[in-house]
Write a structure and sequence with these properties.
By secondary structure, this protein is an alpha/beta fold. The protein has a single domain (2-269), classed as Rossmann fold (3-Layer(aba) Sandwich). It is built from nine helices and twelve strands. A four-stranded parallel β-sheet has the order 3-4-6-10, sandwiched between helices. It has a two-stranded parallel ribbon with strand order 1-2. The chain has a two-stranded parallel sheet with strand order 5-12. Helix 1 (47-69) links the parallel strand 3 (32-35) and strand 4 (77-83). Helix 1 (47-69) runs parallel beside helix 2 and helix 6 crosses helix 7 (229-235). The radius of gyration is 19 Å and the shape is globular.
Length: 270
């Protein structure tokens, strides 16, 4: 099922939450639902952009939960997305799923998002909430944005570079979601590598994997001027996480080491 796009296959269901409720008949009989919809969070956060970020997560989640509640045969499991932004900026503190939420726009969005997702949990449906970290893939996201300046010799740490980035490769992210479908894990789950890195170290590892150097820092003031609140909440925020519930439930990471992970990613991307 897709949101806000054209159908790509005869059995593809497209839903525009702004116009209508989802037709529950299209979901009747499914064993599982994975809900990942949401407005991208890159770019400057204008008032309109922030509204789309919030509504695209909370409204779709509420409507989908209402639809599933009306099914004769609801799914036995729902994996609903959230993000590690719920913890806010926490410095060097080691965090787990039991840690308290933080402050800031992203933390508030994630709290409302997870509150809406709570309606998925019923006596017939198990709910796992996937708190996703920085997903590494050369095809998009944070890693793709790092590649061009580093390849040009213009890359470097953001701000002071001491902020912790809790990352996970795209392959491990997909495997983790499949793991949540197949195990009895409930509630919030940190989808991050067991080895978080400070921004300066992650940047150096990317540069090393590319055979480049990355010693030109991007001052925090420049990021704040260029990107405003997004820089403060996303690029400069420090979030040092443990994937405690993933590991306790028997999940084994394919790419826990950043050097090996980047080598694999760049080899696959050519």
């Amino acid at each position: 099922m897709g949101i806000g796009r054209v159908a790509r296959a005869p059995d593809d269901v497209v839903w525009d939450p702004a116009r209508s409720m989802l037709d529950g008949r299209s979901l009747e009989g499914f064993d599982a639902v994975v809900h990942l919809a949401g407005e991208p969070i890159d770019g400057r956060w204008t008032r309109a952009k922030k509204g789309r970020i919030l509504e695209s997560r909370v409204t779709t989640t509420r409507l989908l939960a209402t639809t599933l509640s009306r099914l004769q045969s609801p799914p036995t499991v729902v994996v609903s997305a959230s993000a590690i932004g719920i913890y806010g900026h926490r410095g060097d503190e080691y965090l787990s799923e039991d840690s308290e939420p933080g402050q800031g726009f992203l933390a508030d969005v994630c709290l409302q998002w997870e509150s809406a997702a709570a309606a998925f949990a019923t006596p017939l449906t198990r709910l796992a909430v996937a708190r996703t970290g920085v997903v590494l893939t050369p095809l998009g996201g944070a890693l793709k944005k790092l590649l061009l300046p580093i390849r040009l010799g213009l890359g470097g740490p953001m701000g002071g570079g001491k902020q912790w980035w809790s990352w996970i490769t795209l392959d491990d992210h997909i495997r983790a979601i499949l793991h949540l479908l197949d195990t009895e894990v409930e509630g919030p789950v940190n989808l991050v590598s067991p080895n978080p890195l400070q921004n300066r170290d992650l940047t150096q590892e990317v540069a090393r994997a590319l055979g480049r150097s990355a010693f030109i820092p991007v001052p925090a003031v420049v990021l704040r001027l260029a990107l405003g609140e997004m820089a403060e909440d996303l690029l400069l925020a420090s979030c040092r996480l443990r994937p405690q519930r993933l590991e306790d439930s028997g999940f084994r990471f394919g790419d826990p080491d950043i050097a090996v992970a980047l080598a694999n990613l760049f080899n696959r991307s050519g």
